[in-house]
Amino acid sequence: MSFQAPKGVSEYYPPRSALFEEARDAFARQARAACYGYVEQPVFEDTALFARGVGESTDVVSKEMYSFADRGGRDITLRPEFTAGVVRAVLEHGLHKGALPVKLWTAGPVFRYERPQSGRYRQFYQFDLEAIGTQDPAVDVETIVLAYDAYTSLGLSQFRLLLNSLGDKACRPVYRQALQDFLRGLDLDDETRTRIEVNPLRVLDDKRPEVRAQLDGAPVIADYLCDECAAHHATVRAMLTDLKIPFEDAPRLVRGLDYYMRTTYEFDHALLGAQSGIGGGGRYDGLSEDIGGPPLPGIGFAVGLDRIVLALEAERPGHTPEVNRCQVYGVPLGEDTEAAVLAIVTELRRAGIRAGMSFGQRGLKGSMKAADRSGADYAILVGQQERQAGLVAIKNLKDGDQHDVPAPNATQWLAQRLREG
Ligand code: HAM
Fold first, then answer.
1. Can you give the pLDDT at residue 324?
2. What is the 130 CA–ligand 1 centroid distance (Å)?
3. Quick one: pLDDT at residue 199?
4. Which of 9, 11, 105, 126 to mutate to test the pocket of ligand 1 (most atoms within 8 A of CB)?
5. Which of the residues 302, 316, 359, 421 has an alpha carbon 20 to 30 A from that of 343?
6. Is the model's pLDDT at 20 over the cut of 90?
């Protein structure tokens, strides 16, 4: 009997995993450049954290969580997102008592029991970044710019930034009421009617054409923002414009999680079909209080690394990142030469050159084939003769040129050639 991975999980292995690493590293670089600190979070938390933090009425909590009782009878859930857990950790460890905002990032697997399809998985991977402890709209913009720069640094361009404000505790209830009044007058099925009462903003997100057709005249939140929210939103828009970050106002943009307030945004990729959201985020100024903490505003985003891999493949077909490719490949010829080759490749690696070698006495033909497969620019060949003479033969695998170089000079010789390209 052989096993397959469970339904709906994504997994990465070479060479494709290099794209995954590239995507995660691009975001980590942005986070570090803006002095965000790293957090490593537990994969599971108390179920109540997500029920209260993310919201009982959301699809994520009501239908998609991997929840179970552990052997001690505790109600546990595999994290469906990072934000609630990050805020829990900040409160638990008192990070909010130091300098504010607390700026943190993390990355790893998250779990949602969704219907699997291309770009939608049950275990998927997020990079997540949070700035906790300030209401300053400049930090909203900071997070957006970091995400934008990470996408563009990866060579992505076919994406849009959609921006909205969801108001706050003062103005959203008034909008919610107006929206409910409008929606109650439409021709909708029973499930959607229930949603109008529980979570009316989600109805705006309905993708079915028969529902969309009726939403044209729906009230938009922009007309209901209180003065503070309107000013906050105007500042965010002005700063993005100043920084030349292109965005589209998306007055119907709602997010799948309940904690959002004021600024919300999504990045949407043009070539990904139905699962086009490559990242999203916003403010969650009430989340800390929802989970028993003091008032502590926050903003952040998460990106779906799986979808970024798909976007990279769509926008840059044929491009393979360098990380897994060897630059130099060692070929021991005959007995007693393996140790000499291992010593040289070790020195190369210590000098920052990616180097592999042939194991298992494969002989010249087999080893040269392996050298080609490794993608290396150069092979270093060491036979009995070379070993005794203290030399290595360095072969340029592109043009076939071969030089004998004294073994102690090999690293320097190769480093220079590789630098020159
Ligand atoms: P989210 O919009 O639920 O936000 O997820 C963020 C990103 O995760 C999405 O834009 C998408 O790229 C990816 N994603 C979501 N579901 C799946 C799936 N089933 N398969 C593959 N990728 C998926 C959050 O999770 C918030 N915690 C973001 C945030 C951080 N807000 C404030 N801080």
1. 76
2. 13
3. 87
4. 126
5. 421
6. yes
C-alpha pair distances (Å), 310 with each of 29, 158, 182, 236, 317: 20, 12, 38, 30, 10
Cβ(21) to ligand 1 under 6 A? Answer: no
Mean pLDDT across 284-296: 97
Alpha helix (H) ranges present in 74-123?
A: 83-92
Give me the CATH number covering residue 342: 3.40.50.800
Question: Does residue 258's CB lie within 6 angstroms of at least one atom of ligand 1?
Answer: no
Distance, CA of 101 to CA of 99 (rounded, Å) = 6
For residues 51 and 108, membership in a common domain is answered with: yes
- Residue 243 sits in the same domain as residue 106: yes
Token pair in block for residue 235: 């500042």
Q: Is 140 in the pocket of ligand 1 (CB under 6 A)?
A: no
Asked whether residue 155 falls in the same domain as residue 76, the answer is: yes
Residue 215 lies in a domain: no
Please give the distance of CA 342 from its chain centroid, rounded to a whole number.
37
- In the predicted model, is pLDDT for residue 123 greater than 80? yes
User: Measured from the CB, is residue 112 less than 6 Å from ligand 1?
Assistant: yes
pTM over 0.85: yes
162 and 267 share a domain?
yes
Residue nearest ligand 1's atom 11 by CA: 304
Going from the Cα of 137 to the center of ligand 1, the distance in angstroms, rounded, reads 22
Residues 6+ apart with CB under 8 A from 245: 141, 144, 145, 148, 161
- When mean pLDDT is compared across 62-76, 133-147, 187-201, the lowest value belongs to 187-201
Tens digit of each residue's pLDDT (9 = 90 or more) over 303-355:
999 999 999 999 998 887 777 789 999 999 987 899 999 999 999 999 999 99
Within a domain: residue 212? no
Amino acid 355: pLDDT: 97
Bridge partners of 108, per DSSP, are: 126
| pLDDT exceeds cutoff 90 at 170 | yes
* Judgement on whether residues 100 and 151 belong to the same structural domain of the protein: yes
Question: Considering only CA atoms, which residue is closest to atom 31 of ligand 1?
Answer: 281
> For residue 86, how far is its CA from the centre of ligand 1 (angstroms)?
15
